[in-house]
Design a protein that fits this description.
- By secondary structure, the chain is mainly alpha-helical.
- It has helices spanning 68-104, 106-132, 200-228, 245-259, 265-296, 301-310, 320-327, 330-345; strands at 6-7, 27-30, 37-40, 46-48, 55-57, 158-160, 165-167, 171-174, 179-182, 186-188, 193-195.
- The strands form five sheets. The chain has a three-stranded antiparallel sheet, with no helix packed on it.
- Strand 4 (46-48) and strand 5 (55-57) form a beta hairpin.
- Helix 2 (106-132) runs antiparallel to helix 3 (200-228).
- It is elongated, with a radius of gyration of 30 Å.
- Mean pLDDT is 80; it is low at 1-23, 337-342 and 344-349.
- The structure holds zinc ion (3 copies).
- One zinc ion binds next to strand 9.
């Protein structure tokens, strides 16, 4: 049983080549999806099976991945360094802030210690989950044998030569992770992992927790630094008029700089914590905003890139339900059930 393919790329032979092209130029190949024999034109390196809908690309080769272990090691080292850095920030924050906070009142100290504990645990745990959880592979499916594969059952599926497995249309192969990732958003160097269907929620929870933590650190470190700042010694006594505003401002700035000389080491740690937390907070807040808008629009960063490169029109619906579905439990549970159901039916080629 033969099904003639429909070519997807510029496979149309040129007009002048028609007289040399004969039936013998057409060659026979097998659809990887359903295993049927197909007669295809030599000008069709990429074709779609007329029965199962699977796409075969004769130009696709196994990607050269000789630096895979080096990339994996680099990613893991970066994760360990970032984890140590977070612990350093938490430790130095507690050292610099808590003696001052506890000196105000015992209740005040316990209150802030509780908030710090909750924020630290959620940030560290969501970071570890996003980093070490599998980003989620494509669902296991049956493939390679007619008539097990029904009509259009593998519509737009491609074959990953690196994993030797079928790839659904929303799956991408990541060279750094060495695997196909379902609903891949991007490969994030800061978590040393891909952000995909398996860990996207952990990644978003980490961003929310990290933005809240850095916001808290910036407010508290500013407040405590203000409290322990040495008194300004050269306070100008000039009456403020329009002409003297610049002079007064300069004198204030000067006396402020002089007072830094009397600032204890704790004060310098607080200044560092304030500027570090504000800059990290801005970066993470922008990333979180971008991620939430993609979720609201029902797409991922990669699908947006693909849309941009094709210049196509947006088809996904912008809906708050997308965000509810993302954070609710129905979304992954449905996926797990489908994955489990398919894995029971699947077979190894
Ligand atoms: Zn097929
Ligand atoms: Zn793959
Ligand atoms: Zn990756």
């Amino acid at each position: 049983m033969d099904f003639t393919d429909s070519a997807l790329t510029d496979s149309t032979p040129k007009q002048e080549d028609h007289h040399v092209a004969s039936i013998t130029d057409e060659h026979e190949t097998t659809c990887w999806g359903c295993g049927l024999r197909l007669i295809i034109s030599p000008y069709a390196p990429i074709f779609k099976c007329g029965w199962c809908g699977a796409i075969t690309n004769h130009n696709a080769h196994k990607q050269d991945n000789k630096y895979f272990w080096w990339r994996r090691l680099r990613d893991r080292c970066f994760v360990i360094i970032l984890l140590l850095f977070m612990l350093f920030i938490i430790g130095s924050g507690v050292w610099a802030i808590y003696p001052v906070i506890f000196s105000v009142s015992y209740f005040n100290g316990i209150f802030h210690l509780t908030i710090t504990g909750i924020l630290s645990i959620t940030t560290l745990s969501t970071y570890i989950l996003a980093s070490f959880r599998s980003p989620g592979g494509p669902p296991l499916i049956t493939w390679g044998s007619y008539p097990t594969i029904g009509r259009n059952e593998l519509m737009d599926f491609t074959y990953c030569h690196s994993c030797s497995k079928p790839k659904s249309p929303n799956t991408h192969h990541c060279r750094s992770c060495g695997m196909c990732v379902l609903d891949m958003d991007h490969h994030c160097p800061f978590i040393g992992n891909c952000v995909g269907a398996g860990n996207h929620r952990s990644f978003i929870f980490f961003l929310i927790s990290a933005v809240a933590s850095t916001f808290y650190v910036s407010i508290v470190s500013f407040h405590v630094a203000y409290k322990i700042w040495p008194p300004l010694r050269h306070i100008p006594s000039t009456v403020l008029t329009r002409s003297t505003v610049v002079t007064v401002f300069t004198e204030y700035a000067f006396s402020f700089l002089i007072s830094v000389e009397y600032l204890p080491i704790r004060g310098f740690v607080l200044i560092y914590l304030f500027f570090a937390s504000v800059s990290v907070e801005i970066g993470l807040a922008v990333l979180l905003w971008q991620q939430l808008s993609y979720i609201y629009e029902g797409k991922t960063y990669l699908s947006q890139l693909r849309l941009d490169s094709r210049g196509g029109e947006e088809v996904d619906e912008k809906d708050c339900q997308n965000i509810v579905r993302f954070f609710g439990c129905r979304y992954p549970v449905t996926r797990c059930v489908i994955g489990f159901w398919n894995s029971k039916k699947s077979h190894k080629k």
